[in-house]
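Ticket reopened. Same input as before:
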Amino acid sequence: MKTLDTLPKKDGFYMPAEFSPHHGTIMIYPERSGSWRYGGKKAIPAFRQIWDAVTEDEELYLIVSESKFQKASSYLKNNRHAHILTIPQNDAWARDTAPTFVKDNNGNVRGIDWKFNAWGGDFDGLYADYEEDNKLAREVCQILSYDCYHAEHFVLEGGSIHSDGEGTILVTESCLLSQGRNPQMTKEQITETLCNYLGAEKVVWLPRGIYNDETNEHIDNMCAFLNPAEVVLAWTDNQNDPQYPLSLAAWELLHSETDAKGRNFTVHPLPIPVYPVCVTTHDLEGLEFAEGEDNREVGERLAASYVNFYFTNHSVLVPQFGGENAVSDALAVQMLQEWCPNRKVVPIPAKELILGGGNIHCLTQQIPK
Amino acid sequence: MKTLDTLPKKDGFYMPAEFSPHHGTIMIYPERSGSWRYGGKKAIPAFRQIWDAVTEDEELYLIVSESKFQKASSYLKNNRHAHILTIPQNDAWARDTAPTFVKDNNGNVRGIDWKFNAWGGDFDGLYADYEEDNKLAREVCQILSYDCYHAEHFVLEGGSIHSDGEGTILVTESCLLSQGRNPQMTKEQITETLCNYLGAEKVVWLPRGIYNDETNEHIDNMCAFLNPAEVVLAWTDNQNDPQYPLSLAAWELLHSETDAKGRNFTVHPLPIPVYPVCVTTHDLEGLEFAEGEDNREVGERLAASYVNFYFTNHSVLVPQFGGENAVSDALAVQMLQEWCPNRKVVPIPAKELILGGGNIHCLTQQIPK
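Engineering reply: fixed in the latest deploy. New output:
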């Protein structure tokens, strides 16, 4: 592994779209007791469904701490597409802590090691000690032998960007301009940095993301590419819902903007769950918070959105919230199946995932082919 | 023209789907002063857009009273696909008062002359004198030389039925079982009558239609076939909206039922306008109600739904409500374009139409090819 201090764009590298072919997917075993109830036990069934779906299509690299190695191995033995890597970490959000991968036209793939500060550092970060998470991207590159761009001067999580692979990056202003990221930089400087590292020509800035999303409203919970110039947008028809003005602003922005190639966007509205997904007393059982960690509270509305799906090579893994949202769940599966006729839509029970603070997309990071 | 007292099904006749080829469309000029502001003047621009779209694709038969013949002719002169028929009528809802057409496998087409009682007669009808409307179907058959089934023992409006052309009829219980229609008949007898006249094998009964729809919730405002076993359903994601339980019940019924050929239904949810379309003081200007007529009131919520679209041979004419519902309007156009990729979606400004009490589908009746 080489550490590179050059700029990917100058080197001919760019970030492919998630819908383009993958070599594999990086995930992390759920262990953090402030995120995952009973030290991960409740979430494991959902994780196993994701691991199974991923390994049907591509390689899975599962990061675990040493103490969970045996347990993880027992779940994945006999699965020749699953590979376990022992790396210490602070939580399971591979999207945000694993490398962002870029490639060039010769098929070379490299990682980017951004600065990670737990979604806001001292300003509004979600946990105080994130040193292992911040080191993770570099260690993954080392173990998997990818050259790695050193971008520790720039705070970024993978969940705050989407790429169409053709020069366009989607982000939210609420996240990338937040005081907890890169407050010393102007919007123009951030745009330039994103273009330089992701090999892009244009950044499209949606104003906001999902209501009450503790990541400062990551784009990956709000809006995702299905194809170049074709996106899915989290939507609600309920004008009394606090999500309504946020989705409306994004809809209007997307209809007033073009992508890097000058194309208009086709926007598919995907309704959020009809019934707000809120934390119950029961949901808090089995959580143990560390000092300095943002605590879950009863009644808190979770940032439940079906846009936090993940593309494997041939599937779409879609969150399902269950209970009174059964109809919304079915509707999301059906709509995604219509928009992705050549993929298999795989529903994943996600209540334990959103309780952890994110969803399927947040837990996965693709390695391009 | 022959009057027939036999049953279409026994004679080998059935009701084709609206999405199947048309010879033409019947419409009626807006004149009733309790439905159309300033005696129709405000609604004419929307009607003209419909006439233009229809005559691009098929023949238009426009029914007018003698006093409006000149006016109608001036709008349609030089349009060789437009034909004006002078027949007296009480209002402009051709869907409900013109004949329902059936055909056989030799290409013969016949009309059905149901009993019309203005959506409920003495029980909850919308106007007291509907004699001209009740005679209209028979007169149309006479002028256009279609043999006509005499079904005056059965109260039915065309807007309360949808046919897939392959043996399945969609209806709502709220309408067909209402006290103002055929209260002497059981649900089973109504099912049998529908099958006998429409040449069908199965009636699928949705419980309800659109909230506050004064037709006792006609199916044609709620759910429509795009193809056999594929329907569009009026939807809302707002669980506080009175429409929510009605749409949910229909969704569940459709997912628990099969059609006449045993196929499951694919259900496409189409959001109603986000902002309820309600009557303003301004909207009442220019209306004059007759004695015994149901009056519009300020604040009344209108049964605005995009499902009240109409298929011409190559287009879908879709209602648009304007103003604060511009985004909902655009969304409906986009979704219908996705679901009907081989048709041209034509948006029609429909605020004056819904004020009249119905929409594009209610104003049109297809004559099959």
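The interface with chain A takes residues 235-241, 244, 248, 251-252, 255, 266-269, 271-272, 274-275, 327-328, 330-331, 334, 338 of chain B (CB under 8 Å). The first helix of chain B runs from residue 44 to 57. Please confirm and we'll close it.
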